Amino acid sequence: MPGGVVADDDAVSPLVRKAAAWSWRLLVILAAVVALLWVFKRLEIIVVPVALATILAALLMPAVDFLDRRGAPRGGAVALMLLGGLAVVGGIMAFVVSQFIEGAPALVEQVSFSIDGVRDWLIDGPLHLSRDQIDNAGNAAIEALQNNQEKVTTGALSTAGTVTEIVTGAVLVLFSLIFLLQGGRNIFAFVTQIFPLTVRDRVRDAGRAGFHSLIGYVRATFLVALVDAVGIGTGLAIMSVPLALPLASLVFLGAFIPLVGAVIAGALAVVVALIAKGLIYGLITLGLVIAVQQLEGHVLQPLVMGRAVSIHPLAIVLVIAAGGVTAGIVGALLAVPALAFLNSSIRVLTSPDPEAEEAAQEYDDGPLVKAESDDVEGI
């Protein structure tokens, strides 16, 4: 350098300069992600229903397109699939409720018998408690409940507010699902018009690839839920546990809610087995539920789900955990489909040949992909 003066950049190691360049760029990306998550959190009551409707659309869209290609009116096909889906879910729920109502008297009788047995064990067993001590304990529990009546009332009001949000979200899901099934491709084509003409086709290709990953995700989720229900239901039936079929139905529905749904349904099965058949059968049911959930968490979810959405099994486990930590049940529910969509979309966006990359990610329903492409190109 002139005069022997060394420039500031030359005085810093090239490794440090590269690290600094990467660091500020990563910080900018992280800030953008945090800002985006903050916006989603503020608009959660809108974002979550639309996301759920998109996932349901991925489940029903192939059937709607099949009927559409066979000459059925698009609106009629949408109405048929919606009514059919509601009928299936409603039928399962009605069956579960009716079976529980039918078996409730026997369970109540068994609960009373179990409570009497526990009371006798506390009195005559190694603890040698007196009846007065047991009665005092019951009275103390009732008194504590009465003293905390205000908190219970506040909780009920909070629950009422939550129910209102759930109803509002359900209405948004229904309306969003109807419009997505009826004209989702037109909506997507209209939204993508904000992109420059030079990249618009690539963005549309990326969107189609991401949507097909959602189709794979919902199919894999259905398979996992079915395996859970069959495994636990078969075990309960072999042990002659009452309400085996409705409990298996609840396990099937609960498997669609990551982390919490399967745990609650499995815990209910353990409680029913414990009450109806005793401690040994309760422990066996607990072992069965744990074994099935371990199979789901460590084998079915990573392998089946990872294969369906072309994501490494480790990434499936990590993204579910990250979604649960970040946004609870909703985050765990939407983490994998969001990652699947982004993974396929980004691969198409960054591929030198997006059409080849999109074709490599197609599932068995090739005509559906062609129909989607034709619809978008014709807009």
UniProtKB/TrEMBL annotation:
Compartment list: Cell membrane
Residue ranges of the region described as Disordered: 354-379
The UniProt record lists the keyword Membrane: yes
Bilayer-crossing regions: 22-40, 46-67, 79-101, 166-199, 220-241, 247-271, 278-295, 315-342
Predominant location: membrane
Pfam families (alphabetical): AI-2E_transport (PF01594)
Record bears the keyword Ligase: no
Coiled-coil stretches noted in the UniProt entry, renumbered to this chain: none
Compositionally biased intervals (Acidic residues): 354-365
Membrane topology: Multi-pass membrane protein
Domain of life where this protein originates: Bacteria
Family note: Belongs to the autoinducer-2 exporter (AI-2E) (TC 2.A.86) family.
PANTHER family associated with the record: PERMEASE PERM-RELATED, TRANSMEMBRANE PROTEIN
Protein name: AI-2E family transporter
The organism's taxonomic lineage, starting at the top: Bacteria, Bacillati, Actinomycetota, Actinomycetes, Mycobacteriales
